[in-house]
């Protein structure tokens, strides 16, 4: 089991222009008066200073996470096999394709090996580029081969430095988004500082480097920054076209690098749909964003050899449904309050029905079942009936797919982030409700509009989008802990924007009858500066201590296993075992696998369930027959799974298998009434007794404290 131990001593501004608060409506007022010459010079100076801070903070964050990774593993000093083992579970699988491309005789041969791969799943040839999002590994490997850097930089360092470099892009994008929302780069500075001081909850790149989300989230942040700029008023046509191009490129790269892109963009599309229905965003720009999402996803679909999971995604069905429904209901935004509400309800129902019909139709035509495990998981998670489905329960029992732990909020509160976020969220939600009510009531009611503006400010389109975005992704994070990184990073942006926003402070001071323009400006800058000073004094010593703490990678049992496999088994040998371990086997040894952690394929899920019978209560003959059906030569048994204690009863892997097989679970506790005792003992325990019924099929060839490797007999 991999552990980290203490290291032994050895060698070793302002934005270019503030948006006036009156620009809440989608329809822009008249022309903006030109800035005086002195104001232009100040704007140029301010943008330059803000840009320097953004780039500097991005680079410093990149160096920071790279240093943490080095200090935690002593990556520069450990052996190559240890470096590869540190890429755990699916991380190792993705990195193996980068390694495969680097070691190929030519780029063409490397690509051919990915398109016609017969080592990732035994007795089956699959297209890796179609099944998995690994174009980033392909691009990096080609770049490494053509650049004259081989003698200066090892392939693994080129890979991890690229990922750490993307963290700079991520932080800069968050900085710019906050700056655009608030009109001052001080907001961006605060957002970046919050991102770093809340690192435990905003990123995990330093210990899960090749994860798809670490590639994708920087591009998602760039897309959000571009959308924020797009939603500003008074953009020139050339500016708008250029911004749409940036949105498209960022959307495409985000979609290309993460298999869960469609679900994240579906939430984004829902945010746009809600705001468009409430007349809080310009319809033309929303339409362009819908089209960009569809076109970006379809382009990825083409590159992934027409991946059916993309074609059957809810995002495409939803966006197409919205565009069709809008064409049918042309007078959606006309009439009084009751008329608008009635039309709105019909519109939502029409979009929902069309989405389900189109999605069902596409899946029926394509016979698509790749994503059914996700919907089974969601159905069970939200209480729509218990399930014995092995795949759904496998997700339900993982902590990463559980509810967001409460201690997350205590950590976020220690930096003041959660307190500020909650305060800003409350204020802008109230403002959004008032603006939405006024929009639905009809824009011609000037008297109502004047009355509202005495107490509140109108909500700008970019701020409205940011509000709904953070609410929807907050709901996602609360329900699924693994998705919290999409929320917490934007939380930094949203909280810093609110703290530096003229509109927010104007609203507060007006409610307290203390509003003056000068007082608003003083508070707008003084409160963020005080917050920055507090964060610096409180967390700087901790960051320095963290950077000075030196540890090293330590996993001798896995290293011993990988070295034994490389030295004592043929290159064509097929290995069975847990999907997490087998990803490391492929990376470290290049041997053929029976199953792996990339779970978005129905056949692979069924295969994994069959392979996992090695931890169930099955006869040796049954297990042998299953393994040989997949061409298995060696099977690896792990004590950490066979005698698992990490999960409670009912969530251990052996319990999930027992329930799926209709058998009573081990240990004290209740069982469902229709479960029956198995006729056979647990395979992974009984095989170690070397009984004749087992030794006729399996011969132990390797053993240490963690792993047991058995070679399968080849009966005629």
From TrEMBL:
GO cellular component: nuclear inner membrane
Record region (Disordered): 1-34
Keyword list, A-Z: Glycosyltransferase, Membrane, Transferase, Transmembrane, Transmembrane helix
Domain of life of the native organism: Eukaryota
Membrane-traversing stretches: 41-66, 215-231, 243-260, 266-284, 296-324, 344-362, 416-437, 463-481
InterPro entries: Dpy-19/Dpy-19-like, Dpy19L3
MF-aspect GO terms: mannosyltransferase activity
Main location class: membrane
Pfam families hit by this protein: Dpy19 (PF10034)
Compartmental location: Membrane
Membrane topology of the entry: Multi-pass membrane protein
Basic residues composition bias: residue spans: 1-10
Family, per entry: Belongs to the dpy-19 family.
Name the record gives this protein: D19L3 mannosyltransferase
Organism, scientific name: Anthoscopus minutus
């Amino acid at each position: 089991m991999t552990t980290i131990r203490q290291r032994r001593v050895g060698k070793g501004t302002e934005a270019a222009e503030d948006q006036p608060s009156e620009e809440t409506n989608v329809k822009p007022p008249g022309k903006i008066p030109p800035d005086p010459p002195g104001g232009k010079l100040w704007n140029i100076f301010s943008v330059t200073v803000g840009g320097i801070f953004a780039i500097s903070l991005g680079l410093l964050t990149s160096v920071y996470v790279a240093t943490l990774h080095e200090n935690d593993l002593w990556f520069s000093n450990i052996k190559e096999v240890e470096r590869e083992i540190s890429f755990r579970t699916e991380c190792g699988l993705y990195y193996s394709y980068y390694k495969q491309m680097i070691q190929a005789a030519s780029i063409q041969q490397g690509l051919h090996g990915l398109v016609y791969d017969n080592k990732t799943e035994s007795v089956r040839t699959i297209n890796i580029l179609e099944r998995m999002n690994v174009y980033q590994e392909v691009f990096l490997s080609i770049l490494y081969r053509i650049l004259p850097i081989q003698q200066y930089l090892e392939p693994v360092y080129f890979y991890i430095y690229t990922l750490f470099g993307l963290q700079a892009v991520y932080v800069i994008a968050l900085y710019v988004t906050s700056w655009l929302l608030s009109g001052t780069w001080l907001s961006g500075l605060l957002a970046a500082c919050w991102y770093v001081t809340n690192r435990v909850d905003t990123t995990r790149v330093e210990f899960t480097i090749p994860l798809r989300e670490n590639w994708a989230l920087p591009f998602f942040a760039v897309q959000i920054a571009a959308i924020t700029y797009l939603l500003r008023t008074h953009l020139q046509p050339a500016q708008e076209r250029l911004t749409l191009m940036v949105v498209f490129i960022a959307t495409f790269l985000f979609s290309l690098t993460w298999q869960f892109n469609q679900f994240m963009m579906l939430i984004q599309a829902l945010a746009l749909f809600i705001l468009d229905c409430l007349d809080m965003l310009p319809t033309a720009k929303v339409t362009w964003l819908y089209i960009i999402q569809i076109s970006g996803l379809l382009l990825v679909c083409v590159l992934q050899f027409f991946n059916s999971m993309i074609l059957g995604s809810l995002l495409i069905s939803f966006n197409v449904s919205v565009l069709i429904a809008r064409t049918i209901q042309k007078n959606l935004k006309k009439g009084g309050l009751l008329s608008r509400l009635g039309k709105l309800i019909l519109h939502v129902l029409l979009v929902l029905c069309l989405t389900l019909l189109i999605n069902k139709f596409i899946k029926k035509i394509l016979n698509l079942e790749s994503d059914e495990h996700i919907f089974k998981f969601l159905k069970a998670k939200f209480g729509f009936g218990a399930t014995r489905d092995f795949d759904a329960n496998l997700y339900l029992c993982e902590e990463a797919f559980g509810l967001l732990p409460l201690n997350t909020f205590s950590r976020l509160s220690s930096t003041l982030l959660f307190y500020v976020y909650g305060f800003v969220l409350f204020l802008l939600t109230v403002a959004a409700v008032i603006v939405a009510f006024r929009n639905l009531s009809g824009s011609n009611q000037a008297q109502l509009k004047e009355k509202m503006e005495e107490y509140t400010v109108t909500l700008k389109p970019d701020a409205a989008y940011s509000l709904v975005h953070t609410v929807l992704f907050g709901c996602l994070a609360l329900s699924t802990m693994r998705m919290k990184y999409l929320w917490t990073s934007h939380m930094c942006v949203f909280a810093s924007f609110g703290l530096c926003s003229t509109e927010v402070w104007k609203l507060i001071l007006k409610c307290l009858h203390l509003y003056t323009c000068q007082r608003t400006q003083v508070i707008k800058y003084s409160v963020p500066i005080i917050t920055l000073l507090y964060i610096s004094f409180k967390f700087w010593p901790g960051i320095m201590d963290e950077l000075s703490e030196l540890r090293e990678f330590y996993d001798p049992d896995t290293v011993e296993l990988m070295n034994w496999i490389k030295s004592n088994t043929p290159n064509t040998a097929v290995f069975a075992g847990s999907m997490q371990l087998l990803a490391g086997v492929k990376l470290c040894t290049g041997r053929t696998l029976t199953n792996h952690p990339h779970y978005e394929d129905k056949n692979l899920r069924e295969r994994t369930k069959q392979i996992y019978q090695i931890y169930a209560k099955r006869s040796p003959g049954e297990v042998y027959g299953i393994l040989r059906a997949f061409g298995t030569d060696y099977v690896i048994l792990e004590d950490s799974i066979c005698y698992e204690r990490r999960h409670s009863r009912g969530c251990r892997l052996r319990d999930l298998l027992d329930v799926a097989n209709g058998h009573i679970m081990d240990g004290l506790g209740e069982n469902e009434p229709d479960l029956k005792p198995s006729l056979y003992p647990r395979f992974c325990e009984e095989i170690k007794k070397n009984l004749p019924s087992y030794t006729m099929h399996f011969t132990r060839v390797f053993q240490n404290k963690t792993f047991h490797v058995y070679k399968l007999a080849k009966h005629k």
